[in-house]
Design a protein that fits this description.
Shape of chain A: elongated
Helix content of chain A: 40-55%
Low-confidence stretches of chain A: none
Oligomer: homodimer
Radius of gyration of chain A: 25 Å
Number of domains of chain A: 3
Order of helices and strands of chain A: HHHHEHEHEHEEHEHEHEHEEHEE
CATH architecture of the largest domain in chain A: 3-Layer(aba) Sandwich
Number of strands of chain A: 12
Largest interface: A-B, 57 and 57 residues
Strand content of chain A: 15-25%
DNA sequence: TTGAAAGCGCTACCAG
DNA sequence: CTGGTAGCGCTTTCAA
């Protein structure tokens, strides 16, 4: 930077302005500095800029696993809005291990990121305090309800699952099955599912808990329905906490010659792009994975004054998408 | 840092050592400094550390789209090895737009990342030069063949697709269809597919090009096979450049009552976890998406002396996985 | 519109 | 094993 300042006959302060606030520099200086910079092949050191300017232009996001379609959709949304505004995305995965979360957050805070996007609401008191203490904007996602650490965008997992249960009940099903992961969000969905069933005066659902979202969810779903049906042959409908599991169920039914939805109705959750293409087309609960990401980014950039200020809490809702499978 | 140095009665240099090279600090000092740090709730500023130490502990990766299962697998592998070694991952997407690539790379170089992982080999001369000039380790992935900018891990798309063609030919198919994206890797696969067919003295394949990998590939695959079959009813086998497209083909056949593989054989590419679960189970070409990521990370950390040094070029190969669909 | 200079918080080198 | 100190490359007042 010093070199280019000397060559262009200006001070390094001016060079800095050329890159950061070109509007305050005279057109002539602007051009000459840019020319020299290009000649030197100069690339501004953003690390130094971050330190001096006390802003990193980096937003960090933490998801359980990036290989899960739903979270990669959210990350895609986040990444889109961030990059449109000159921000970068630092990505961390917890692989559903709570201890990883604290470690990741500490690292990211140490990196002085300009914002933090988390999956789920942080329960750990100490961690919440540390996050708050850092003063950086945080948005928690994919949940609603209890008090967030800072900002929140998502939907009610309970309500969404209850709506699914009600759909099944409305169709006359009396004996319901539930196949879901062990993570917090799946548990919330189980709660909602149970409540709706109880409210309708029906018998408790038959529950199968499986490992949390993974690339092999399809396989897991197939195994789960096999086990469930073996133990409870009376089940007439199965609700799955994600579409990949539901797809596994559909496939297993096809293999066993179980007609869907006549013998067994099946519902998914998320409304992934494949849901509509399956045969039979999957009835599912639509939630806005991608929009969660874009809104999270907007909330953070809103706080920084880069975009219009957003409310601190956003309920994106859900809707039951009725197709052929239930 | 100054505060905690004063409180602990040591110099800031010692405080720095406590966090970076604890092994050279006496146990007593170590403990007292750590205690004070904890009391103050001190989080080391990694940005300052990066600037002073001339290393960022960040590796950047660029993929076309993160929502594609294959790339998210690679990113997962990368992320795993990186985080095991105290490195963070900065993620960028090009959405298949070449101009985005240069912009992203410039930003990442400006960030002085410790390594760069790219999808595909960089063709732009000027860009290659800029990357090389930065001196940071770069690994290009998902291709093989032409000379990489620096390091390379992948497989031959041509050879892999040729193997698929040979498999189909061996099964007696004479009229082959190809459904693939418009990106470079799909084009390479088409080349290989064509060569093998030509070598066998068969007629040119019937080709359908579709938009590059997207969450809606399944839908795209269904549409493509419908169009292809309408125009060329004689096709007895279809090779798809990814499993999601193949899944769409399978589903469309099911919808139309076309028996697979008897009336139409179908092959995929990638061997995603779902491939084995489909009905009929998908015959596909297995490539190591996850391993590409782990090896890329190892190559970079090998260069930095963090891990054992790796060769600059790694061919992960491929294999035809014969299941039911072809 | 531009320049001078004071740091940003930390690392690494050199002594001791 | 520990301390002193010179930067790392840039941003940002404050003045001119």
């Amino acid at each position: 930077m010093e070199d280019i300042a000397r060559e262009a006959g200006v001070s390094i302060a001016t060079v800095s302005r050329v890159f950061n606030q070109p509007e305050v520099v005279s057109p002539a200086t602007l051009e000459s500095v840019r020319k020299v910079a290009a000649k030197f092949g100069y690339t501004p050191n953003l690390t130094a800029g971050s330190l001096a300017g006390n802003r990193s232009k980096i937003v960090a996001a933490i998801v359980p696993v990036i290989t899960s379609s739903i979270f990669s959709e959210t990350i895609d949304g986040l990444s889109t809005v961030l990059s449109e505004n000159g921000y970068q995305l630092l990505l961390g995965q917890t692989w559903y291990r709570e201890d990883r979360l604290a470690a990741l957050i500490d690292t990211f805070l140490g990196r002085r990121v300009d914002g933090l996007v988390l999956t789920g609401i942080t329960r750990d008191k100490a961690l919440r305090k540390r996050i708050r203490g850092s003063g950086i904007p945080v948005v928690e996602t994919w949940e609603l309800g209890r008090s967030p650490t800072d900002m929140l965008v998502g939907f009610s997992n309970q309500d969404a699952a209850a709506a699914a249960a009600r759909h099944l009940i409305d169709r006359g099903h009396k004996s319901l099955g539930f196949i879901g992961g062990m993570d917090i969000r799946s548990t919330e969905r189980l709660d909602g599912f149970r409540s709706a069933i109880e409210a309708a005066g029906l018998r408790e659902p038959r529950v199968a808990r499986v490992p949390s979202p993974s690339p092999s969810s399809v396989l897991v779903g197939a195994e789960a329905i096999r086990a469930l049906l073996a133990q409870f042959p009376d089940i007439s409908a199965a609700f799955c906490t994600n579409d990949m599991i539901a797809m596994g169920v559909l496939l297993e039914c096809q293999r066993q010659g179980i007609p869907v939805p006549h013998k067994l109705a099946v519902m998914g959750f998320s409304d992934l792009p494949i849901a509509a293409s399956l045969v039979p087309a999957l009835t599912t609960v639509q939630v806005s994975a991608h929009a969660i990401g874009t809104h999270a980014a907007q909330m953070i950039l809103g706080r920084k004054g880069i975009l219009e200020r957003q409310p601190n809490r956003l309920d994106l809702g859900y809707s039951v998408v009725v197709r052929e499978s239930a």
